[in-house]
Each structure stands twice: as structure tokens, then as C-alpha cells.
Automatic annotation (TrEMBL):
Keywords: Plasmid, Transferase. Residues 248-347 form the Adenylyltransferase AadA C-terminal domain. It comes from the Bacteria. Residues 96-107 have a biased composition (Polar residues). This is GCN5-related N-acetyltransferase. The keyword Cell inner membrane does not apply. GO terms for molecular function: acyltransferase activity, transferring groups other than amino-acyl groups; nucleotidyltransferase activity. The lineage of its organism: Bacteria, Bacillati, Actinomycetota, Actinomycetes, Kitasatosporales. Residues 1-107, 500-519 are annotated as: Disordered.
Length: 519
């Protein structure tokens, strides 16, 4: 499903997924020699990719070779499976009931045969993913296929793939049984080892049929959309040819996935909308994925987002969900001002969520060598205990496992061997205020600048999350560190020692902490 339209204008078409017309470039890709101009689809943003993603469930298909009912030659079809999230309300008939809700084995088989005929032994793997695999399949849904090849297709091979796909793929809007095909092809060496943005070797999508019929050929080009797309294939792709996708593709780092998804939001907000429904749903899906790390169906993402929105911003999303399910007529009359306000609200939430995704490691020089500082570093409770003991503290088992779920984030600093050298936790109030807690530096590595480095990164990430103030309290001997090296300024503050006023004990990271050791 191909969707990335901004919400301001009135949407059209209640039963299609709104193909976006990407740019047709006049330039030639590397290695392109003769023939028609290539099609560049970089304008197809990550937001649009998120808009076509499908249900993600804990019990999803593992996609092992040899167990696929859609493998070429199989006589059957795959019915629409259970989708994450609720469907239409019981007893309410949808306008799409009675329509075809399955994927034809003959159509998937035709695409696989075309790839083999054109590319031969260069085809390493072909994977079915999207609605056809996990549910949420609608009459307007695309047939999403992903191919991994061993070498880049030639210009002649690209033209042959386009010619064949024009015959195999259904059109927008859908007529008959053939579904619109979206086929993405990558060269394995361009995506493994993973790099961002990776290069897409070829892509066919019905939103560019007019250009293809005029002779345009898809170009090879860097494509940020490969980050969410490969994530979907790795999680849920069903092999039609070759091994499971994890044998050919590397995982996409969370930071790259977040960067690609968030990059699609400005286009959703800025461009005139041809399909308001899908723009509204896509924003909710991007937000949901950044917050949860899961890729859900449109309706499931809407159900997740609705209770998290202020009440005044819920009507556009509720209406978009119902129109998508076919239980409401898609009319945006009178809702467009609310759509714009909804879009601004969710875009702000997306920006904040993206800031909380683990960042790529920041490598910085300190006395004695370099360290890697990582926001939300995956620090285990045993590692934390070892760090506390290194400076004479007595750690409380399980403290870090209990605390980290309540944090805005934290920073871990490691040396080249991976040894944890420094740490600081960041709590917050859910709004403007963040709080620096429990800074620690390994006893053998103090006074080298490690404490400064973790505080600097913590402050930067709190700022990116939308916080205005970062608070800290400390022992008097650390004034120079916090006011000098870290940039804090003096302010009046108060403190109550609760055990001495109300009895009881306070569980903390360590019994004899040494928590304010010299960073």
C-alpha cells in the first residue's frame, strides 16, 4: 500500500490507498547507458512507506522456506488473516464485504517467474510481506514483494522487468482480481553490511504506471525508505524464493528506522493532500512505531493513538479509521481545521518520540583514549552493579532493572572492549523538566573527562526530547565539576530527607553509594 499524503486538503476515494506520483528524474543512474529516462522515487518518503505497513503480532508467521502456500505453483491463495487491532464493529456491514480478500498464488507466481526469467541465477531471495502476510488486507491493498539480488540489474533488465510488471500488476483504482504490485529490488552488497541510506536497485509501483507506459525506467538510488521496508521484511517476510530474509539482510538500527520515519512527516504536513484519510492514518502509524518499536496495521495504530491524543484531536483519526474499515463514508467537510490541528499535534509527538530512540554511538576523546557514549545504552543490572562496586559502593540487586523503565533515558560510556566506564540517568516530569540522577564513573577511570562526556550527551538528548530545564543536586565538593565543566548554574532549591521525617527506608542504587564520586 503506497500512501504519503499530507492532511490539509479534502481527501478523495474511499476505497483506494492513494498512490503518490513520485518524481520522474531526467538524469541517468550509474551504469545506465541508453534508453528511456529512469524513474527516481526518492520523493516516496518514509512516511509513505509507514503508511503501507501491515499488522505486527507476537504470533506472526516465521516465514520458513517450504511452508508458504503462495509459493509458485501452489493452487491456493492466502485469505486475509487476523489483523492487530479491532475490525469493524459486530453487526455493522462494511462496504467492502464480499470483495476479494485474498492474494492469488498465480499473481505472486507470475512475479517470481518474471524475476527468474529476467535476472536468472542473480536472484538470491524473493519475499512476500505486508497485508497479504499478516492481515489487514483490504480490496485496495497492494501485493508487496521484496527481492534480493547478487548484482545490479542492467538497463535492459530493468526495461524487461517494467514491461512484464505492467502486464502482471493491477491498476489503481483496482479493477478485477489482480492487485497492484509493488516490487522492490536491492543488491545484497548494498544493504549488507547495513548503511544509511542504502541504495535501492529497482522499484516498481502503480503510482508511476503513466511514466512507465511512456518508457521511463526505475533508477538505482539511495532510498531512506529501505530502513522501514527491510525492517518489515525481516520481521514478517515469507520466502517465495531463497532462505529466510535474515540470512540475506542485516537488521536496521533503531536510530536509522526512526530517522527514516520522522523524515516523512514534513512532507505529510506540507504537500496538498490527495488522500486525507491515509495521511491521518500514516501519522498515527509513524508515531506508534517510534513509541513501541512495532509495526501495526492502520486500524491498530489508530486504536493505539486515540486514547493518547487530547480529546479535541481524536475526531479526524476516528473518522479516518472508520473510513478505512468501510464503516463510514469518507467525507471531510467540516473536519479539515481539526485535521490540521491533529496533524500538528501528532507531528510534535513524532518529533519527541524520535528524539528518544537510541542514537548512534558518539565517540569522543578523553584522557587516556576514546570512549563511546550511547543514549539508552543496553546496560544490564549486573553491569550496573559492577560499576557501583568499582568505586566502593554496595549495589542493590535489581535496582537498575526497576528504575530504567521510568527514565526519559540514560547514557552509558564504554571503552573499545565494551567495558562500562560511566553512566548517568535522566528522569523527567513528562514535560519541561528533566533531572540528572546517579552519575557514576568507574573507580579506575575517574578525572579523565568521562563524567563530563555522559552529562553533555544527557543534556543534549533531554533538549532534543523537548525539555527546557535540566536539574541536578550534588555534594559541595562537586561544585566545580557541575558549574564549571558541565555548565550548570546555581539556583535555589529545597530537599526533604523522607526517611527521617516519616520513617521507613528508601531503596536506592546502593547502600553505601559513593554515588557522588568524583566524575
Amino acid at each position: 500500500m503506497t500512501e504519503s499524503h499530507s492532511p490539509p486538503a479534502q481527501g478523495t476515494g474511499a476505497d483506494r490507498d492513494g498512490p503518490e506520483r513520485a518524481r520522474v528524474g531526467a538524469g541517468h543512474p550509474p551504469g545506465h547507458t541508453t534508453g528511456h529516462p529512469p524513474v527516481h522515487t526518492a520523493g516516496r518518503t518514509a512516511g509513505r512507506t509507514a503508511g503501507r505497513t501491515t499488522g505486527h503480532t507476537a504470533g506472526r508467521t516465521t516465514g520458513r522456506a517450504g511452508e508458504n502456500p503462495l509459493a509458485p505453483g501452489h493452487p491456493g491463495s492466502l485469505p486475509c488473516g487476523p489483523c492487530t487491532g479491532p475490525g469493524p464493529a459486530p453487526g455493522r456491514r462494511t462496504r467492502s464485504q464480499g470483495a476479494s480478500m485474498s492474494v492469488s498464488a498465480s499473481q505472486t507466481g507470475a512475479v517470481v517467474r518474471l524475476l527468474r526469467e529476467v535476472l536468472g541465477d542473480e536472484v538470491a531471495g524473493v519475499y512476500l510481506y505486508g497485508s497479504a502476510v499478516l492481515g489487514g488486507l483490504r480490496p485496495s491493498s497492494d501485493l508487496d514483494l521484496f527481492a534480493v539480488v547478487r548484482s545490479p540489474p542492467t538497463a535492459e533488465q530493468r526495461r524487461a522487468l517494467v514491461a512484464g510488471l505492467l502486464d502482471v500488476s493491477g491498476r489503481y483504482p483496482r479493477r478485477g482480481t489482480a492487485r497492484p504490485v509493488e516490487l522492490t529490488v536491492v543488491v545484497r552488497s548494498e544493504v549488507s553490511p547495513w548503511r544509511f541510506p542504502a541504495v535501492r536497485a529497482f522499484q516498481y509501483g502503480e503510482w508511476l504506471r503513466d511514466a512507465y507506459e511512456r518508457g521511463a525506467v526505475p533508477a538505482a538510488e539511495p532510498d531512506p525508505d529501505l530502513a522501514p521496508l527491510i525492517t518489515m521484511v525481516l520481521r514478517d517476510g515469507v520466502p517465495l524464493v531463497g532462505p529466510p530474509p535474515g540470512a540475506l539482510l542485516d537488521p536496521v538500527p533503531a536510530a536509522d528506522l526512526a530517522r527514516a520515519l520522522a523524515a516523512g512527516v514534513p512532507e505529510l504536513l506540507a504537500e496538498p493532500a490527495a488522500d486525507t484519510r491515509n495521511a491521518v492514518l500514516t501519522l498515527a502509524r509513524i508515531w506508534n512505531t517510534l513509541e513501541t518499536g512495532e509495526i501495526r496495521s492502520k486500524e491498530a495504530a489508530a486504536e493505539w493513538a486515540l486514547p493518547r491524543l487530547p480529546r479535541e484531536h481524536r475526531p479526524p483519526l476516528s473518522h479516518a479509521r472508520d473510513a478505512h474499515l468501510g464503516i463510514a463514508e469518507e467525507r471531510w467537510d467540516g473536519l479539515l481545521p481539526a485535521v490540521r490541528a491533529y496533524a500538528r499535534q501528532v507531528a510534535a509527538a513524532v518529533e519527541r518520540s524520535a528524539a528518544l530512540v537510541p542514537a548512534d554511538p558518539w565517540t569522543t576523546e578523553v584522557t587516556g583514549g576514546s570512549i563511546r557514549c550511547v543514549w539508552r545504552d543496553p546496560i544490564g543490572d549486573e553491569e550496573m552493579g559492577d560499576l557501583v562496586r568499582s568505586h566502593g559502593g554496595d549495589p542493590v540487586a535489581g535496582w537498575w532493572d526497576r528504575v530504567k523503565g521510568q527514565s526519559l533515558g540514560w547514557v552509558g560510556a564504554r571503552d573499545a572492549s565494551g567495558l562500562l566506564l560511566g553512566f548517568v540517568n535522566v528522569a523527567w516530569d513528562g514535560g519541561d523538566h528533566a533531572f540528572l540522577l546517579d552519575p557514576k564513573t568507574r573507580g579506575s577511570h575517574q578525572r579523565r573527562g568521562i563524567g563530563t562526556a555522559v552529562v553533555v550527551l544527557a543534556a543534549a538528548r533531554a533538549r532534543a526530547a523537548g525539555c527546557t530545564w535540566l536539574h541536578v543536586d550534588f555534594r559541595p565538593e562537586l561544585r566545580d565539576f557541575y558549574f564549571g565543566a558541565c555548565g550548570f548554574r546555581p539556583t535555589e532549591a529545597g530537599l526533604i530527607h523522607l526517611p527521617s521525617t516519616g520513617g521507613g527506608t528508601m531503596g536506592g542504587p546502593e547502600r553505601d553509594s559513593g554515588a557522588a564520586e568524583d566524575p
